[in-house]
Amino acid sequence: MTIVETKYAQLADAAKPLNLRGGARLGPVTVAYETYGELNERKTNAILIEHAFTGDAHAAFYHKGDVKPGWWDDMIGPGKPFDTNKYFVICSNVLGSCQGTTGPASIDPKTGKPYGLSFPVITIQDMVMVQKLLIDHLGIGKLLSVAGGSMGGMQAAAWAVMYPQSIHSAIIIAACHRHTAQQIAFHEVGRQAVMADPDWLQGDYYDQAIPKRGLAVARMVGHITYMSESSMEQKFGRKLVKKDALGYNFSKEFAVEGYLEYRGQSFVERFDANSYLYLTKAMDYFDLTEGDRKLSQVFSGVTADMLVISFTSDWLYPSYQSQAMVRALKANEIEVSYVELASNYGHDAFLVEIAEQARAVTNYLAKVYKERVI
């Protein structure tokens, strides 16, 4: 069992704050990150892993006392796709989160209290800007690859556009180049559930009861979008908590009801309600075309080799959104590989449907390293 520790870096301060996309300035900014494997002498084997919405920097191996490893341990480690015998793998917690990097639950040095809603609204591009500062801090001139799924895939796409000379390749999994009305709508339902909780207190709840009920409902709604209809039917169907015992009341009688309640309750124990608001809003703002440009124009400056992966049953980020990016990249004669993997797991497939995804990533990274680095 390999034990790792989370590290921290301060990448901005009050004297030299971040200039955020929305016009606000933010400092100090601390970033939580973990590394796996060793950086080679030429610093040519570094890979940045981007986590999804509610993820964190702990992508692989174990923290001391952990029962379970990091969230993508199936993909990161010796002999795995992101092979730590070959590559130096980095994962940082995103700006606005509540897992070690500066966010709304962090202390505002001006007041000595948590920022709450005084924390500036952030974007995916702001997250990527902070990650670039971290890579510079680590002394890495050019990343072998940036890889991630879902919100992590959005960040990988933004890296390719924002810092084309700083990466050799990007792996975009189950993601999109901009949120659709439906994707925004699901997030808005979640945000309204949080803000309707009487314990939310306009975001100023940190020394009082947290808005558990609203945040749990928001997570329940979100979790439905991560699964496919077939996976839910296969796992739950119309199974009852108590066999053949319908009470004809509003208790939780169906197994799926109990499962969603468990997901909601476990979520509130590890995540901040305000971070939920800020990160969902960041994803909703995400639009590489900025509303009026063609995607092919946006990708015209991309120099990285690209791998795009989607899943057949993902209805939250369906394959047509990945295919739109592929077409735009090909229109610019950018080297791009596209794989659509068959799966019944829905959007969560990138976390659980490992075998085929692992082969695609392993072969792709070997190709990129051979063609771009050696």
Determine the CATH topology of the largest domain: Rossmann fold
**Which range best describes the helical content: under 10%, 10-25%, 25-40%, 40-55%, 55-70% or over 70%?**
25-40%
CATH architecture of the largest domain: 3-Layer(aba) Sandwich
- The number of distinct β-strands equals 14
What is the SS-derived class? alpha/beta
The general outline is: globular
Name of the CATH class of the largest domain: Alpha Beta
Low-confidence stretches: none
The biggest beta sheet is recorded as: 8 strands, mixed
- The number of helical runs is 11
Gyration radius (Cα, Å) is 21 Å
Descriptive account of the structure:
The protein is an alpha/beta fold and 374 residues long. The chain folds into two domains: 7-178 and 288-373, Rossmann fold, CATH 3.40.50.1820; 183-282, Orthogonal Bundle (Rna Polymerase Sigma Factor, Chain: A). Helix content is 35%, strand content 16%. The protein contains eleven helices and 14 strands. The strands form four sheets. It has an eight-stranded mixed β-sheet with strand order 1-4-8-5-11-12-13-14, sandwiched between helices. The radius of gyration is 21 Å and the shape is globular. The mean pLDDT is 97.
